[in-house]
Structures are given as C-alpha cells and as structure tokens.
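May I ask for a single protein's sequence together with how it folds?
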Amino acid sequence: MIKSTGYAAQAADSGLAPFSFERRDPGAHDVQIEILFCGVCHSDLHTVRDEWHNAIFPVVPGHEIVGRVTAVGSHVKKFMVGQIAGVGCMVDSCQHCGSCDEGLEQYCENGFTGTYNDPEKQTGGQTYGGYSNNIVVNENFVLHVSEKLDPAAASPLLCAGITTFSPLRHWKVGPGHKVGIVGLGGLGHMGVKLAHAMGAHVVLFTTSVSKKADALRLGADEVVISKDPEQMAAHLNSFDFILNTVAASHELDAFLVLLKREGTMTLVGVPEFPHPSPSVANLIFKRRHLAGSLIGGIAETQEMLDFCAEHGITSDIELIDIQDINQAYERMLKSDVKYRFVIDMASLTKEKKAA
C-alpha cells in the first residue's frame, strides 16, 4: 500500500483538514500519478457538506487532477513514467454495458466509480480524490495532457471543460450557429471559450452588468442582462442552442422562448432545489427540446483536451494553497473567484514541515 496525505472532511460540518490514508499499489493495468494541481469544483463543496445526502466520510474531494506519472503497471501501454496526465470525475465503470461499449462511461448502466466518495472495486474500500499528493487509477481512465497546456490552468478542464464541451459537441455546435451560455462562472466561462473556438456566434446571459467586459474578453460576441425584459425580448426565437450552466433554481421559460423552432436548451447544473416547472406550451409549439448532459466519456474527454491544446484554451484560475481551501469554499459560495480555484498540491509539504 502507498502512504498518502491529503485534506479530508470528517463530517458535514467539520471543514477540511489534513488526513493520512493509504492507496493501493499499482496493479498490472494501473497508473500511479504524483498530483501537481487539483481544481476546486462546486461538487466538492456539495459533497463534503453532504448537501446531496450521499457523502461517505471521511471525504477527500477533488476530480480535476493533473500530475506526473511516477509508476505504471506491467501491462500498461498508454502511459510512461514522466508524462503529464489527468484524471477527471471517473476512475472506473463496468466497461461492458451498452453505454460503456459506446464510450459513454459517464452513463454506465451499472454506475461509474467516482474519483471520490464511491466504493473502490479493487480494494473494497472507498475512493479518495485529488486533494492529495498521489492517486492510482486504471489506465483506461487516465488522460494525456499536452505539454502545450499550463498544467495548473488545465486541471479544471477535467470537469468544467468536459461538462461544457460534451453538450456543445453532441448538439453539433459550429459556424453559423447562434449559441447562448447562461451564467459566467466556472462552467460558463469555459462554455464561452469553447463555443467561440467552435466557430459559433456566442451570447452570454448574466444578471451582472459588471461581467460584460470579461465575457467579451473570453470570447462572447454579445452580452445580455437576463433580468432586463427588453434585452431578452430582442432575442426571441433566435437561438439554435443554449447551454445553461446555472446550478441555482431559476425560471427556465425565460430562456426556452429564445430558442428557434427545434432548438435545444441543455442543463448542466444540478440545483439544490428543483427548477419551477417550465410551460409545456413553450416546448410543444416550437418543437423545442429541454435536455441535460453529464460530463463526457473518456474518449470525448481526451478529444476535449486535444481541442484545448490545439486552440490554446485553459481555465481562468486563481492558484491557492491547500491550507486555504476552507476559505476558498466560502468565497466560491459568493462567486468571488474568476473563475476556478486550483490547488497547488506542492503546498501539502508545508504541513509536513510544520508538523
């Protein structure tokens, strides 16, 4: 077993604190990674505070992982020691159901294994995530990260990047399309960058006038203040696709009526409380679609990373020490970050020196 250190929540109200644990030794098909950077996702906060009522304590969160390969199993063919690699939201799946056979492991019909807070098949224990110094993962769930990408700024691509890339790809966003992005946070700012790089005309919807300049800098062609009825009305029946990244409960009809006939709005944020039910008439009379999307499969995640390397796309980040994670959570709740916190895992050594 490999001695590991990280930060964990011991209970929903405990906050994160130093934690020592063990990971399995690499098996024949495993890759061992020294974690260099780990992005901070809102899902991490939901889990450690047990807001989804499924936390298995202690929880070591983190599923936006970039690091360096330090060991590989005897049958590993895809990775070599020294390479930069990534791990996203999944570390395993059944690998034999219809969804897995199609490369859609995120929809595994037997349930994928999350990078943290899930039972680990190999040991019978539980998975611990990227707020730690190392991780061991089956090579089929490890991604290549191009050296063209800054590794710190690339780490949020493993969740925020693929969560927005997958629906844009699935609904074939490209040149000639008018695409709306609702919300300019960790997900929304990636949606703007990716849709722009795909050649779409991008409109950012926000409630904050102060975000207009940033949205234009990130690649939006237009910015609409969604609480202004006149600005919203000017875009009725005009969008091919809308990617709604907002995780707070809100009125969906305000955006559905902006879709063209047969247009689609896809939701990628899971609200704490359900959205008010949209009007069925707004769907029926224009044959509009209201859909959802969950991260992406491994092959699509690799496609996204390669696309980002080709187009020079990374997340806008604020680099923090692991010791500041609890304060970062409070700031994240206030949307006081542009646009993703990333933990420099080298800061874990400060704990060792202080001990």
